[in-house]
Write a structure and sequence with these properties.
Length: 257
C-alpha cells in the first residue's frame, strides 16, 4: 500500500507550526527492542538501529543529549509518549488515530509486512483476505497501519502475542497458523533461534509501511522536527540511510551466526 499523500502532506504542514526547540537539550527516546534494523538492543546491551543512527547524527549536529530507553515495553512507551514522559518514539507506522495525539516526522524507512508459517502447515497467501478462516498472531500493542489494523479487527482471527522476540513460539506449538511481522524482524528471529527449517516467510508482502519518528505533542523538542526532516531527506539522497541499513542487517546476521 502506498503511503497516503494527504497524510504525508499533513506531516509536512504540521512542521511549519511547531514551537521553538530552545527548551530542549535532551531527547528522551523510546522504541521497539527487536525491530531490526530499525531499533534493537545488542547482546552487549548497546541500544542501536537505523533510527538511533539518525537521532545520534542529529544530536551531534545540534548539541543535544540522547536518553535511550528501548528497554521500556512498547505499550508502556506509547503511554509515556502520550504523557510527555518520552519525547519521541524511534520508529512507528502512520495511523490517523495516532496522528491525532502525536506528531510525525517524514518517513525514513520502509518495512514490508509479511506472513510467516510453519513449514509443515503452508497455505497460499497473496492478500489479506487469504488469511480469513485461519488463526494468526501479531505483536502486542503494535500497529501495521490503518488498512491492516481495520481489516484484521473486522475480518481476521488474531491474537496479540506479548512474547516479543519469542512470538514464533505460538506458531511452533500450533496455537496459531501464521504470524504477521515485519520482514527483517521476522527473519532475524528465525536466524537467531535457528528456525530456518521450521518457519517460512510467504512472498509477496501483504503490505509495506513507511516508518517515521513519532513525537509527543507535550514535548519541548517538537521544534526540532522540521530540521530532523531536512536531515532525513539529506541522508536519503546521499545514500547514507541505505548504507546504515545494510550495516545493521550485517550486524544482526553476524550476531545470529
Amino acid at each position: 500500500m502506498t503511503f497516503p499523500a494527504a497524510a504525508e502532506n499533513a506531516i509536512l504542514a504540521q512542521t511549519q507550526n511547531t514551537p521553538p526547540a530552545s527548551n530542549c537539550r535532551k531527547l528522551s527516546v523510546g522504541g521497539a527492542d527487536g525491530w531490526e534494523p530499525i531499533t534493537y538492543i545488542r547482546d552487549d546491551g548497546q541500544q542501536t538501529g537505523l533510527a538511533i543512527d539518525i537521532l545520534q547524527e542529529y544530536a551531534k549536529r545540534n548539541d543535544l543529549q540522547l536518553d535511550l530507553n528501548l528497554d521500556i515495553p512498547w505499550t508502556r512507551a506509547i503511554q509515556m509518549l502520550s504523557n510527555g514522559e518520552l519525547d519521541v518514539i524511534a520508529g512507528a507506522y502512520f495511523t490517523h488515530e495516532r496522528d491525532q495525539v502525536h506528531f510525525y516526522s517524514v518517513p525514513f524507512a520502509n518495512d514490508d509486512i509479511m506472513v510467516f508459517q510453519r513449514n509443515d502447515n503452508r497455505f497460499p497467501v497473496v492478500e489479506l483476505s487469504d488469511l480469513i478462516g485461519y488463526d494468526g498472531a501479531r505483536p502486542q500493542g503494535g500497529s501495521y497501519g490503518d488498512y491492516i489494523d481495520r481489516f484484521a479487527e473486522q475480518r481476521l482471527n488474531m491474537i496479540f502475542s506479548p512474547t516479543g522476540n519469542r512470538i514464533f513460539d505460538v506458531l511452533l506449538n500450533g496455537r496459531v497458523d501464521y504470524v504477521m511481522l515485519g520482514r527483517f524482524d521476522g527473519l532475524t528471529n528465525i536466524y537467531r533461534d535457528n528456525l530456518i527449517d521450521e518457519i517460512i516467510v510467504v512472498e509477496p508482502p501483504i503490505d509495506s509501511n513507511k516508518v517515521h519518528f513519532m513525537f509527543s505533542r507535550k514535548s519541548p523538542c517538537m521544534g526540532h522536527v522540521r530540521n530532523l526532516n531536512i536531515l532525513i531527506e539529506q541522508l536519503a539522497e546521499d545514500g547514507t540511510l541505505d548504507q546504515w541499513t545494510e550495516n545493521h542487517l550485517l550486524d544482526v546476521s553476524e550476531g545470529a551466526s
